[in-house]
Amino acid sequence: MNGIVLLAEYRQTGSERAFAELVRQYTNLVYSVALRRLSDSQGAEDVVQAVFMRLAAAKPKLGGEAELSAWLHRTTVHVAIDVWRRETRRRNREQQAFAMEPSAPEIPEPWELIAPALDIAINQLGAADRQALLMRFFQRKSMREVGESLGVNENAAKMRVSRALERLRSGLALPGAVCTAATLSTLLLTHSVEAAPSQLVARLVTVKFLSAGATSAFGIFSLLYQLLMLMSKFKLATLIGLALLGLTLIGIHSALRSSTRPDPVPKVARSILMRPRTASPRPVLFERNRGIVRQENPRIPV
Is pTM beyond 0.90 here? Predict the structure, then answer.
């Protein structure tokens, strides 16, 4: 079934079956982009989970299957870059105490030269070029299927893919002697998509993702719980320990504040405030020379 149809069914009915099928269709695409950027299978799996959770929680305006593929690719690139930066900072901190010994330079293979910058270059292309490349090389669709998805005939689809390949090669800043458009096409067909681990797909299918309409507190806590369960046992234990430590510190702080809080009303002021009021004497009014005179104190004669 078409991916955009499955996503629409999930939006309307919250069908877990529809979203599970959507995950099965696009996991390899997302996993390949993440793995190419991170060169780490565990990190790539974490990126895949984050991307599909964003798809379930967000509500992107997608007009067709090509736009869905482009959205998944773009989101994967952004998430993978964030993870890569975080891991790079961590490794740099760990390696500060060790001197890096120079090693003899090695001539990289063409794909090793292309892979780190490939997805960023694709993401910088125009929407039409990006959709054409993703449909052809990442989803392995024929030129006829690419044309049907883009609303053009097969010959027009071939021309669009060819122009997009040339723009991609220029964006990668690769000289023609190193990588021609034909070579780039072969490399993309061979390496652009790698099969995700079967256990990752099985785990994603069983996750109850948070839909865009589930904004209740229960839904949010459910999503956080599932995120924690997807982490390793070490990470989960660390987070639980930090949460318990935070709750303990909050309780100690509250107890100290309540025990040292000054009395807002001193004893003398409280006795004055609680003293019963006596009725003050009313002014005396009497008539004198046809006028009304107010006497504040009746004891003093006028």
Answer: no
d(CA 34, CA 32): 5
> What are the tens digits of pLDDT across the range 3-53?
889 988 888 888 889 999 999 999 999 999 999 988 888 889 999 999 999
Q: Which residues pair with 72 in a beta bridge?
A: none
Contact 199, 27 (CB under 8 A): no
| DSSP-derived secondary structure for 254-294 | HHHHHHHPPPSS-HHHHHHHHSPPPPPPPPEEEEETTEEEE
Nearest to 44 by CA among 204, 233, 241, 248: 204
Q: Which residue has the higher pLDDT, 240 or 214?
A: 240
Cα-based angle 247, 248, 249 (whole degrees, multiple of 5): 95
The DSSP code sequence of 163-191 is: HHHHHHHHHTT--TTT--HHHHHHHHHHH
Q: In terms of Cα–Cα distance, which of 35, 68, 22, 5 is closest to 193?
A: 35
The DSSP code for 125 is S
> Please, what's the b/e burial string for 68-87 (b: 16 or more CB within 10 A of its CB; e: otherwise)?
bbbbbbbbbbebbbebbeee
Band (159; pLDDT cuts 50, 70, 90)? very high
